[in-house]
Write a structure and sequence with these properties.
18 strands, Immunoglobulin-like, 13 helices, binds 2-acetamido-2-deoxy-beta-D-glucopyranose, TIM Barrel, eight-stranded parallel beta sheet, single chain, alpha/beta
Length: 445
């Protein structure tokens, strides 16, 4: 199930009409099931609906067939599918407490009266894809039957239900066993012949156990994986995740690419814990991080302004950029951060960029940030066309020497897209992050 995939970055030389293709390839051995070429997008139950199994007293919010059909309907009818959200994913607490007599997983019969295959068919009939949850250990995190001892059976069960995406959690297992166990389940998924996105919790449990995950191996077997804590409904939780990815970026970023992604966990935009500004921050930062966009929110009651954030096509386009290069923090000082992600188009081997200015300060007034494109590593001689991705501001084409000024609200973000313009000076090819350096910005914020 492995073969050699190449993450390639191509740049055409515009100067010579002949197409001299400059190809920079990082050779990685990656899981190649043809899936998740861009980060998966969809809806996932966990963060918002948790393990609510009380359908008697709370029939509209319990983990049930009805909840997933309702969310499926809304993803289609309210425009989420149109902008790219496609997976409807079950998380923990869908199972009966016991396997069947034949040893197969079975859904809780009261909450899923028509069975999982019927629900899967419903999701597919709506043009969407269907995701499932299990756990590599003896139990799921909430105490339902785990996959240990049944890896092959469970992979076959998921295939027979036409599942498109499997998240395999790691509770009640030994992190040391995961280097064998996660690949083994992946092997069985592959053997079913049904292509299923494979989401692994493998590295995060190993990190918790003080181990150093072997990412070379994880990339070979998983389409995405969790690195850090579960997201909770708070700004503090979101900040801790942003810090984790920034502080560990040198080891984390190289692992991302088409077919294999770091997963900083669900989007919580539209819930209770984030303000409007903070919600914009999560969406922008997830795009910079090339993160899966899995909304966990009640789509029946979400307010229009939060829906607009989740459906921001320009930011989604950054997240889904075909190069699949994860962005990095290039500046951090006195509560102001600048993050940059190389994206298409490429001209003359210069990348375009998404740039996020993040204000972590708590003084309640917007902070001014003024910086030249050159200081951020945007040095293409032809300049860049700069556009704000939340506000309808087009800065036009700016040269690298131009100082750009933005006002960033407290706990908010300004996200720009800088599309490189063709130039006539030939440059030597370089990898995307050679362009990006830690800029010597003035500490004037
Ligand atoms: C199984 O693995 C092989 C080899 O990597 C790959 O070509 C094939 O697409 C995979 N099939 C599925 C269903 O994942
Ligand atoms: C899983 O259950 C088996 C059988 O009871 C037991 O031997 C094993 O130690 C358990 N594994 C973990 C990781 O708890
Ligand atoms: C990590 O995994 C790779 C690929 O499976 C393997 O070649 C390598 O030896 C492993 N590294 C360590 C330190 O175990």
């Amino acid at each position: 199930m492995k073969y050699e995939a190449k993450n390639c970055v191509m740049g055409g030389n515009a100067l010579r009409a002949v197409t001299t293709l400059l190809i920079i390839c990082v050779h990685v051995l990656a899981l190649e099931n043809g899936l998740a070429r861009t980060p998966p997008m969809g809806w996932l139950a966990w963060e918002r609906f948790r393990c609510n199994t009380d359908c008697k007293n709370d029939p509209d919010n319990c983990i049930s067939d009805k909840l997933f059909r309702t969310m499926t309907d809304i993803v289609v009818s309210e425009g989420y599918a149109d902008v790219g959200y496609e997976y409807i994913n079950i998380d923990d607490c869908w199972l009966d407490k016991e396997r069947s007599y034949s040893g197969h997983l079975q859904a809780d019969a009261e909450r899923f009266p028509y069975g999982i295959r019927d629900l899967s068919d419903y999701v597919h009939a709506k043009g969407l894809k269907f995701g499932m949850y299990e756990d590599y250990g003896n139990y799921t995190c909430a105490g339902y039957p785990g996959a240990l001892g049944y890896l092959e059976t469970d992979a076959q069960t998921f295939a027979s239900w036409n599942v498109d995406y499997v998240k395999l959690d790691g509770c009640y297992s030994h992190p040391r066993d995961m280097d064998v166990g996660y690949p083994e389940f992946g092997f069985h998924l592959n053997r079913t012949g049904r292509a299923m996105v494979y989401s692994c919790s493998w590295p995060v449990y190993q990190i918790y156990a003080g181990m150093q995950p072997n990412f070379t191996k994880i990339i070979e077997h998983c389409n995405l994986w969790r690195n850090f804590d579960d997201i909770q409904d708070s700004w503090a939780s979101l900040e801790s995740i942003i810090d984790y990815y920034g502080n560990n970026q040198d080891t984390i970023i190289p692992n991302a690419g088409p077919g294999h992604w770091n997963d900083p966990d669900m989007l919580i935009v539209g819930n209770f814990g984030l303000s409007y500004e903070q919600s914009k921050t999560q969406m922008a930062m997830w795009a910079i991080l090339a993160a899966p966009l899995l909304m966990s929110v009640d789509l029946r009651t979400i307010r229009a302004e939060y829906k607009a954030i989740l459906q921001n096509k320009k930011i989604i386009a950054v997240d889904q950029d075909p190069l699949g290069i994860q962005g990095r923090r290039i500046y951090k000082h006195k509560g102001i951060e600048i993050w940059a992600r190389p994206i298409t188009p490429i001209s003359n081997s210069y990348f375009s960029y998404a740039i996020a200015f993040l204000n972590r300060r708590t003084d309640g007034t917007p902070s001014d940030v003024a910086v030249t494109l050159h200081e951020m590593g945007l040095v293409a001689p032809g300049g860049y066309r700069i556009e704000d991705l939340y506000e309808d501001v087009d800065y036009g084409v700016l040269t690298p020497q131009t100082k750009i000024k933005v006002k960033v609200n407290p706990s908010g973000v300004v996200i720009l897209r800088a599309d490189v313009q063709p130039s006539f000076r030939h440059s030597t090819p370089f990898n995307p992050f050679r362009q990006i350096f830690r800029p010597g910005l003035p500490n004037t914020f």
